[in-house]
Specification:
heterodimer; A: 352 residues; mainly alpha; 0% strand; globular; B: 265 residues; alpha+beta; 7-stranded mixed beta sheet
């Protein structure tokens, strides 16, 4: 929880002492403002012209809008779900219930954390708010990275859709699950050796963690939940919208044919599909179906690289993770994960 | 300062409101299909409603004046960090952050609330290889039953059959009725495609597929991107140099409007 949490913890108590009437009337006023804004947005939506011709946009601009909106509409429910889970972990779960039960040994802890995705079938955009919540609760930075990278792949929905799309052929499913598991733990191990892990985080998020350490009193849980919702959306929403805009823009600008043309070369196909994964920024729950549509064009190793790299790093994820990690850390992470995914893909291609 | 504080405090909730109002409106008017696969409809709308309740609660539990005051300090520090630089930066370029936030919000309002929902266009067909995707053209099981009721065949079924390399004999006695939008053949000016997008998750992964129609001079009668229904038998392409060996050669082409579900799944 961010700074506001400090005051909030004390504030509500003070408020309870003050006449309840003042509080309720203020809430009613706030609620009225919220409802008015909602009605305003709804009115704008309903009164806006319903035909595209009214705007005279060229096709490319229309498609840019459609693609970006599609990313937003697709990711939004997952981000909300992630925020709700994050609130549940931070506010409603008994203190330490999740973390106290983890084993002491750092390696075992990370192994177990990378399986946490099995219980929380959220796709990668929902994992960012959840991972933030876990760090605030006392997870180390390295452990949060392991969780962040493993959860979208070691996740029942992802495994089922990958199995539906590819079955057991070519070892694509096995390579994806084991590869994702291995890379996530490798990244966690490397960053666990960082001397000052706090420096990996943005100073804004560090403050959030520090503040959270200090607040201990009971405080209204509902109120804290609601305030966390507004804090988390403040961090996530701009990132999501900007990420979606970039994803839309790149898709309109970069021709698919160039990528597909590289498909049959064992080395280039791996790099091309990793680039595609970075660009399309599609959720891990469904990316297997997406890449299946290229199945005939690409070698199995490149598909594995796509399925491992995409859930961990892409334009939308970088924008979302930037809320938490510094730019330098993200650059290192991207290179590290890209290298691992490429090696994995090449191994599948040549070992096949 | 006041504006900066307000923007900082409320931009997340406001962007959520914009997003969820747009989502629920799309759901009510049945237009979510323009962006995502129908299997996500229920989940998407349910999460939007939950977020709506939380967003309204965020307004009801707005922090007091005292809270808000402490906030602005925290915020100043927070803004700076996005840059990872010192206070000098903050004072000179600090105004960029609220400006960026406001721009993001304006873009969200324009994109989600003002622009009419729209399908992908031929610009994306040109950008993503038409009929280039294998799984979009995998035949569903009942398609080849032989005795088949071909009247129910969609653009996708016919495009798959054409792509599967079935010979001219196979198509000789079959009549297709297909609806889609017009996209030009890049190589043969006499041919256009009746085109649809196949969507597996959301519009981002849409793959264009199409059935070729031979109709010299179609450019004068129809615009690309306009929707048509074509009924015709399959014939050999009179232009033997063309990439499409088997085409529809219709007597009539009927203009139609965009169907409620423009994509195929």
């Amino acid at each position: 929880m961010t700074l506001p949490a400090v005051d909030k913890r004390k504030q509500p108590e003070r408020e309870h002492r003050s006449p309840v009437r003042a509080f309720t009337s203020r809430s009613a006023a706030g609620l009225a403002i919220g409802l008015a804004l909602m009605a305003l947005f709804a009115a704008v939506r309903m009164l806006a012209p319903s035909t595209t011709e009214a705007f005279g946009l060229p096709n490319a601009a229309r498609d840019f809008a459609t693609l970006s909106i599609s990313v937003v509409v697709e990711s939004l429910p997952f981000v909300f779900l992630g925020i709700v889970l994050s609130i549940a972990v931070q506010v409603w779960l008994p203190e330490g219930m999740l973390l106290r039960r983890l084993p002491r040994s750092p390696i075992l802890r990370r192994l177990l954390l990378s399986l946490l995705g099995m219980l929380l079938p959220v796709c990668e955009c929902g994992n960012v708010p959840l991972a933030r919540g876990l760090v605030v609760k006392g997870l180390t930075v390295a452990e949060s990275m392991t969780f962040l990278f493993a959860a979208p792949i070691l996740n029942p929905v992802t495994i089922v859709t990958t199995a539906q799309a590819f079955g057991w052929s070519n070892g694509i499913l096995a390579s994806r699950v084991l590869g994702g598991f291995f890379i996530a733990n490798l990244v966690g191990w490397i960053y666990s050796r960082h001397p000052r892990p706090g420096e990996l985080l943005t100073s804004r998020f560090q403050e959030t963690c520090n503040v959270a350490d200090h607040d201990g009193g009971p405080g209204g849980r509902v109120r804290r939940s609601v305030q966390m919702f507004s804090q988390e959306t403040r961090a996530m929403m701009p990132a999501l919208f900007i990420g979606a805009g970039m994803a839309g823009l790149i898709q309109v600008a970069v021709s698919r044919e160039v990528l597909v043309a590289l498909g049959s070369n064992p080395v280039w196909s791996v790099l091309a599909l990793m680039l595609l994964a970075f660009v399309v920024a599609i959720c891990s729950n469904v990316d297997a179906f997406f890449i299946l549509s290229f199945g005939a064009t690409f070698l199995p190793g490149s598909i594995v690289a796509f399925l491992v790299f995409g859930p961990m790093i892409d334009v939308k994820m970088l924008a979302l993770m930037r809320t938490t990690f510094t730019a330098k850390t993200l650059l290192q992470l991207s290179l590290l994960v890209a290298l691992c995914a490429a090696v994995l893909g090449l191994a599948v291609n040549y070992g096949h | 300062m006041v504006i900066r504080r307000l923007v900082g405090r409320w931009q997340g909730v406001l962007l959520s409101l914009i997003g969820l109002v747009a989502t629920i409106w799309l759901g009510i008017t049945g237009q979510l299909a323009l962006y995502i696969h129908p299997r996500y409809f229920v989940f998407t709308v349910v999460m939007a409603v939950i977020a709506g309740v939380l967003a309204l609660a965020a307004f009801a539990f707005a922090p007091t004046e005292h809270d808000a005051h402490d906030h602005s300090d925290a915020h100043g520090a927070a803004r700076g960090d996005a840059h990872d630089h010192s206070g000098v930066h903050r004072s000179r370029w600090g105004w960029l952050w609220p400006l960026g936030s406001v721009l993001t919000m304006v873009a969200a309002v324009v994109g989600l609330l003002v622009l009419p929902p729209s399908t992908l266009t031929t610009a994306t067909v040109a950008q993503r290889d038409l009929n280039g995707s294998a799984s979009a053209l995998t035949l569903k099981a009942p398609a080849l039953s032989g005795k088949g009721d071909y009247s129910a065949f969609t653009v996708r079924d016919w495009a798959s059959l054409l792509r599967s390399g079935a010979g001219q004999d196979f198509f000789a006695d079959k009549t297709a009725t297909v609806t889609g939008f017009i996209s030009a053949d890049k190589t043969d000016p006499n041919v256009f495609f009746v085109t649809r997008f196949v969507v597996t998750c959301c519009a981002v992964d849409a793959q264009p597929i199409g059935v070729p129609v031979y109709h010299p001079g179609w450019q004068n009668e129809y615009k690309t991107d306009s929707w048509v229904t074509v009924t015709s038998g399959f014939r050999a392409n009179p232009n033997s140099a063309s990439r499409e060996a088997i085409v529809l050669i219709p007597d009539t082409i009927q203009s139609t409007t965009q169907p409620a579900q423009p994509y195929v799944y």
